[in-house]
């Protein structure tokens, strides 16, 4: 924020009489790395910087703007002050006028600049301000943007006048504020890179006479005080949890929000709203908060007085930065790292960077911040490391390792791939702003660690089922693409992936789990717009269970072993026989559209934990979370070729996977018809192993001694969960005659309460069906049920609104011969049949009369009947007095035409392992 005095506000626009761009003589007034980058870009664009006016050196450190200007022999003037009292210092103004600038550019300026200087150039002065003026005028604009909970941030380039950030606007740009944005993240993601570019663009507009002069509106204007006063930095715990979260992140990383923890003053950083289960850990007291805070493995969890939980990842105690998870622990010793010769060569480069920033000799104990560095120097350090060493660090890497020797250790570890952010795959992103966040994902095939176009050039359209709009077009894989992916997967299996120890492979699986958790909200939003999943359900189940399954199988990676088997000895010699569990090599995975990321995770986590590599085809109608997963897999550290993801048609890419001679195992979830085709192709190609999770018509039995309200609630969940697009959905509900009418009445009343609507709205219960063809199938399914005599109680039709919305539906009077009793709906359709309790075996026989055997359930207080049902029912899963209760540790899979093989649990590993028997004679 620019501080100005005595400027005449009238500015004629006729001075922009130029029609063709010409080079300008520019004076830059300001400081910081930001100003230095603007300086460099102006030179690159052909303008002449005739003088740089910046602040005095701090100790023996000069400002980055002064440093870069000096290197280019640009005149540098280091000004202590431009004025004395209210009057400009004549000698300083005269010094300025000597450079004969045509335009003043103020990229970042903290000094009071006299109006004699502002008005002097031919084209006057333009200034950068980090807010969308007229909102948040003043020196702490970015802080107040976050502290006020604004949903939008941005910057303005304005014509300086005699007010405080009140001049006419030249240009403005904005970006969404993400839920856990901080000053640093906003600055690094948008305000810094876009601001530099826009300042240069503004100078070009001035040069060619197209720069607008738009008077600032007074409507919505605000001016907030500087947050440098300590009293303004103290957390007020009486406010709501969201307000407290905004306050903490608004002061992160400078100057930091502070509070009292166990009678000690502590600064809080890296706040995020906590939505997971409450962890265990050590309790501490936080100021006036009525609930104890918890120090746990991922930070400090604080429950605000309104019940909202926020998690703090970083603390500063007595000026020392630390992970919040270490609060209260004894100081830990920095781990010793043995450097390679190449890594030893990093040290002098890092030392040179530190020396240039701090302008002092660097020793192993030099402390970055205690030597005078500030937050802008953190940005400069990270940028120089990126430029000179091609490594990307985070601000936290500097804050958590401020001592030179520790920082070098951190840098070496990051170079080895142990960071969230230092390995990124480049691609041309699809960018979508939705659900108060900016989504970014790839639209290409992922082969050998890179996003690439399809060999054929064919594309698929991704449709948002909530409004039928096109999200984007993605590349469609061909048979040739599958072959290229298999080659990459074979190379990875024979090389780096197999050479890694099982424990190291497990560590990579844990890493992808952490990254899925870190990106939970973005993944859930992508899943919602791509598949129609209700956002809150996507958070908990689609993404939540995906995270759990990766963690579960990460733990199995180093626990896969064979057995020692006693056999008859070959006397007089002896024999030792043992088995080994070995991976197949390259495995193919084909997943459905109802749980896109979760189905990927169920199969791929077990496959990779077993040591295989993967060629995976996600469903063509909902592939976007699979492509986001591919991006995160690079960040997690999976070697190139281990994971290959190819969106495409089943008739081409799916068939190529099933037929490929170098794929030794295929895991498939989908329809029974497609399962038959995959088995046939697998048998005719190379007899590859196959596991299939196919259709279902799962029976749910309701006895009259059940808890009726619970059975109604659970039955509805069994049918309508995830819009009925659920493989274990209760496809047929058998209700004992004595409670049938009461049960149906309660169900119908509850169905009326279901809110159908935009899946991103937090109170929506029921979103759109996945795609148009499936919606039409459900409509025809209901027509056939009515034609055969089933009684429609509620629903049965499409909603009259854009989107693929289908009403939750209840049919009664369903008889065993009917289509609705035999075939899977895979949608929100409840088929209710009566039965008499006098013969439990008879209703079990009816339940077993379909071709499917995936899941089943019974509600009764009679444990003998429940266990008899569990024994007699022909289904891979049996629920007693519950439904839909799946867990990553419990095996999942069906019988009959529901397929064979298991996902989840220890048994899932066996689907991706072969057993080798070895006998030794001695």
Quick synopsis:
It contains 28 helices and 42 strands.
* DSSP, total strands: 42
Shape verdict? globular
Low-confidence sequence ranges: 1-20
Helix content: 25-40%
Rg over alpha carbons? 33 Å
Largest sheet: 7 strands, mixed
Mean pLDDT score: 91
First-to-last CA distance: 84 Å
Percent of residues in beta strands?
15-25%
Q: How many helical stretches? A: 28
Structural class: alpha/beta
Q: Strand arrangement, largest sheet?
A: 4-3-2-7-9-10-11
Structural account:
The termini are far apart. The radius of gyration is 33 Å and the shape is globular. The chain is α/β, with parallel strands linked by helices and 922 residues long. It is built from 28 helices and 42 strands. Mean pLDDT is 91; it is low at 1-20. Strand 38, helix 27 (863-872) and strand 39 (877-880) form a beta-alpha-beta unit. The longest helix has 26 residues, at 183-208. Helix 5 packs antiparallel against helix 7, helix 20 crosses helix 21 (672-685) and helix 22 (708-720) crosses helix 23.
What secondary-structure arrangement, pairings included, does this model have?
Elements: E1 3-5, E2 25-29, H1 32-44, E3 48-54, H2 64-71, E4 76-78, E5 83-84, E6 87-88, H3 90-97, E7 103-106, E8 112-114, H4 115-119, E9 125-129, H5 141-147, E10 152-159, E11 169-176, H6 183-208, H7 241-250, E12 257-261, E13 264-273, E14 282-284, E15 293-296, E16 299-303, E17 309-317, E18 320-323, H8 341-344, H9 346-358, H10 375-389, H11 395-400, H12 404-415, E19 430-434, E20 437-441, E21 445-447, E22 450-452, E23 459-464, E24 469-475, H13 479-494, H14 496-499, H15 502-518, H16 520-531, H17 535-556, E25 564-565, E26 575-583, E27 586-590, H18 596-609, E28 613-617, H19 624-636, E29 643-645, H20 650-659, E30 665-669, H21 672-685, E31 689-693, E32 699-702, H22 708-720, E33 732-736, H23 737-752, H24 772-787, E34 791-794, E35 809-812, H25 819-822, E36 829-835, H26 840-847, E37 852-853, E38 855-859, H27 863-872, E39 877-880, E40 895-896, E41 899-900, H28 905-910, E42 913-921
Parallel strand pairs: 1-8, 2-3, 2-7, 3-4, 7-9, 27-28, 27-30, 28-29, 30-31, 32-33, 32-38, 33-36, 35-36, 38-39
Antiparallel strand pairs: 5-6, 9-10, 10-11, 12-13, 13-17, 14-15, 15-16, 16-17, 17-18, 19-20, 21-22, 23-24, 25-26, 26-42, 31-41, 34-35, 37-40
Helix pairs in contact: 1-2, 1-6, 5-7, 9-10, 13-20, 15-17, 15-19, 16-17, 17-18, 20-21, 22-23
């Amino acid at each position: 924020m620019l501080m100005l005095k005595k400027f005449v506000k009238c500015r004629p626009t006729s001075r922009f009489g130029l029609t063709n761009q010409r080079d300008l003589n520019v004076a830059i007034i300001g400081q910081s790395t930001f100003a230095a980058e603007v300086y460099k870009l102006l030179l690159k664009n052909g303008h002449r910087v005739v003088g740089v006016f910046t602040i005095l050196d701090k100790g023996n450190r000069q400002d980055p703007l002064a440093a870069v200007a000096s290197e280019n022999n640009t005149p540098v003037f280091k000004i202590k002050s431009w004025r004395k009292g209210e009057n400009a210092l004549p000698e300083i103004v005269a010094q300025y006028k000597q450079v004969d600038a045509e335009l003043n550019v103020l990229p970042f300026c903290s000094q009071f600049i006299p109006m004699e200087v502002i008005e002097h150039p031919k084209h006057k002065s333009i200034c950068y301000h980090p807010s969308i003026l007229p909102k948040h005028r003043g020196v702490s604009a970015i802080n107040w943007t976050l502290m006020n909970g604004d949903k939008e941030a941005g910057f303005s380039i304005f014509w300086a006048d005699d007010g405080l950030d009140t001049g006419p606007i030249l240009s403005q740009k904005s970006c969404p504020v993400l839920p856990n944005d901080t000053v640093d993240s906003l600055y690094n993601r948008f305000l810094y890179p876009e601001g530099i570019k826009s300042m240069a663009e503004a100078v070009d507009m001035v040069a060619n006479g197209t720069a607008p002069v738009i008077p600032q509106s007074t409507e919505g204007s605000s001016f907030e005080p500087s947050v440098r006063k300590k009293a303004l930095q103290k957390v007020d715990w009486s406010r709501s949890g969201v307000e407290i979260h905004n306050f903490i992140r608004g002061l992160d990383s400078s100057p930091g929000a502070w509070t009292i923890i166990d009678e000690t003053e502590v600064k809080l950083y890296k706040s995020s709203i906590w939505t997971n289960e409450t962890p265990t850990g050590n309790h501490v007291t936080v100021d006036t908060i009525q609930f104890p805070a918890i120090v746990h493995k991922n930070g400090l969890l604080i429950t605000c007085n309104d019940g909202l939980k926020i998690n703090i990842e970083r603390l500063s105690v007595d000026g020392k930065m630390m992970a919040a998870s270490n609060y209260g622990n004894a100081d830990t010793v920095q781990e010793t790292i043995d450097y390679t010769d190449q890594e030893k060569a990093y040290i002098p480069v890092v030392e040179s960077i530190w020396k240039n920033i701090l302008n002092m000799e660097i020793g192993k104990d030099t402390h970055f911040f205690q030597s005078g560095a500030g937050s802008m120097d953190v940005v400069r350090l990270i940028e120089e490391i990126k430029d000179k060493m091609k490594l990307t660090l985070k601000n936290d890497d500097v804050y958590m390792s401020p001592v030179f020797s520790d920082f070098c250790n951190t840098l070496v570890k990051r170079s080895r791939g142990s960071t969230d952010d230092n390995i990124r795959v480049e691609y041309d992103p699809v960018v979508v702003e939705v659900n108060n966040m900016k989504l970014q994902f790839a639209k290409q095939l992922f082969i050998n660690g890179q996003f690439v176009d399809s060999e054929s050039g064919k594309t698929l359209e991704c449709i948002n089922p909530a409004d039928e709009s096109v999200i984007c077009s993605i590349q469609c894989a061909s048979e040739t693409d599958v072959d290229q992916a298999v080659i990459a997967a074979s190379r990875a299996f024979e090389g780096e992936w197999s050479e890694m120890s099982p424990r190291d492979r497990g560590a990579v699986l844990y890493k992808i789990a952490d990254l899925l958790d870190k990106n939970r909200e973005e993944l859930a939003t992508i899943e919602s717009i791509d598949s129609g999943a209700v956002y809150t359900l996507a958070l908990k189940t689609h993404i939540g269970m995906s995270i759990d399954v990766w963690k579960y199988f990460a733990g199995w990676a180093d626990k896969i072993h064979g057995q020692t088997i006693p056999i008859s000895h070959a006397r007089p010699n002896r024999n030792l026989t043992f088995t080994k569990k070995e991976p197949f090599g390259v495995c193919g995975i084909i997943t459905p559209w109802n749980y896109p990321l979760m189905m990927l995770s169920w199969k791929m986590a077990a496959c990779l934990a077993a040591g295989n590599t993967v060629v995976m085809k996600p469903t063509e109608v909902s592939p976007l979370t699979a492509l986001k997963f591919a991006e995160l897999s690079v960040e997690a550290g999976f070697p190139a070729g281990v994971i290959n993801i190819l969106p495409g048609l089943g008739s081409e890419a799916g068939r190529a996977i099933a037929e490929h001679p170098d794929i030794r195992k295929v895991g498939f979830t989908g329809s029974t018809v497609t399962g038959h085709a995959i088995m046939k192709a697998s048998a005719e190609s190379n007899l590859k192993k196959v596991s299939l999770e196919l259709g279902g018509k799962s029976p749910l039995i309701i006895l009259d001694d059940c808890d009726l309200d619970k059975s109604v609630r659970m039955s509805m969940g069994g049918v309508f969960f995830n819009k009925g697009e659920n493989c274990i959905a209760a496809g047929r509900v058998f209700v004992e005659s004595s409670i049938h009418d009461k049960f149906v009445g309660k169900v119908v009343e509850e169905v009326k309460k279901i809110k159908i609507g935009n899946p991103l709205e937090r109170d929506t219960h029921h979103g759109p069906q996945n795609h148009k063809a499936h919606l039409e199938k459900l409509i025809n399914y209901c027509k056939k049920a009515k034609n055969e005599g089933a009684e429609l109680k509620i629903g049965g039709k499409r909603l009259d609104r854009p989107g693929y919305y289908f009403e939750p539906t209840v049919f009664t009077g369903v008889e065993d011969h009917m289509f609705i009793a035999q075939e899977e709906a895979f949608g929100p359709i409840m088929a209710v049949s009566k039965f008499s309790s006098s013969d439990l075996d008879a209703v079990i026989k009816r339940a077993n009369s379909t071709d499917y055997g995936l899941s089943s359930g019974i509600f009764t207080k009679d444990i003998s009947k429940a266990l008899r049902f569990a024994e007699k029912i022909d289904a891979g899963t049996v629920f007693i007095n519950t439904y839909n209760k799946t867990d990553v540790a419990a095996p999942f899979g069906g019988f009959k035409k529901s397929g064979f093989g298991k996902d989840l649990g220890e048994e899932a590993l066996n689907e991706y392992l072969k057993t080798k028997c070895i006998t030794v004679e001695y």
